[in-house]
Amino acid sequence: MAPRNTHWTPALALLLAAIAGFTDVVGYLTLHQVFTAHMTGNTSKLGIAIGTANVWAALPLAAAVALVAVGVGVGTLACDLGRRWQALLGQAILMAAFTAVAASAVRHGSVADHTLEGFYVLLALATVALGVQTAALTHIDATTVRTSYISGILTQLAQTGVRRLAGRRSENARPTLWTALCLCYLGGATLAGRGMESAGTWCLAAPVGLLVWAAAVDRRLARRGAPAQAARRGS
């Protein structure tokens, strides 16, 4: 299991960060500026909508927050059973379904607002997919890792920087990895912006393919590590 954690898991974290940035931008552009990963922003917007008694604006924002929680629950269940690859494959399937539905529902870069068969279906597919990803990879060894939102990573970076200036070091600090996660998220978001201009929502085909590949690799490594785990338990 050590080689898997040392070499594969950090690479998977970077890949997932790029996919999260990509997916969040595609969702934001097609779903009338509702975030699919950034729930802090959605919650702030929801507060504004509630405060101004704008039920029409509040409904999709509340739905996004609830659906991400559903996705996190599904991803957590898969990972707790030792089947992270199933969470990755499930995310790929949800994103592929988003692409298929968007092919007919999205016009001129966005879907008709508040339609049940278009807008809310796409919202559910994208937000559940990002929720699954959020739960799929949360730690590398004892280090907390976030692949679908940046605020937590920036908090870790700032805390580590201040503590190092004060002469204190943390065993679990991985500033290089955290910086790379931020850059990968930004890179995915940038590519999505360009991809939406040239290919529309079909640009999601690339991250879907990468997720399928990552699920296959993760499954193979999990199977390879299972006999070693069984031997350690028996000794």
Briefly summarize what is shown.
By secondary structure, the protein is mainly alpha-helical. 77% of the residues lie in helices and 3% in strands.
Give a written overview of the molecule.
The structure is a single chain. This protein has eight helices and four strands; from the N terminus they run ααααββαββααα. The chain is mainly alpha-helical and 235 residues long. The protein has one domain: Growth Hormone, Chain: A, CATH 1.20.1250. It has a two-stranded antiparallel sheet. Strands 3-4 form a two-stranded antiparallel sheet. α4 runs antiparallel to α5. The radius of gyration is 19 Å and the shape is globular. The C terminus is likely disordered.
Order of adjacent strands in the largest pleated sheet? 1-2
Low-confidence stretches: 230-235
Overall geometry: globular
Cα end-to-end separation: 16 Å
Key structural traits:
globular; about 75% helix; two-stranded antiparallel ribbon; 4 strands; mainly alpha; Growth Hormone, Chain: A; disordered C terminus; about 240 residues; single chain; about 5% strand
How are the elements arranged and paired?
Blueprint: H1 2-30, H2 39-51, H3 55-80, H4 84-105, E1 106-107, E2 110-111, H5 116-136, E3 139-140, E4 143-144, H6 151-165, H7 175-199, H8 205-234
Antiparallel strand pairs: 1-2, 3-4
Helix pairs in contact: 1-5, 1-7, 1-8, 2-3, 3-4, 3-5, 4-5, 4-8, 6-7
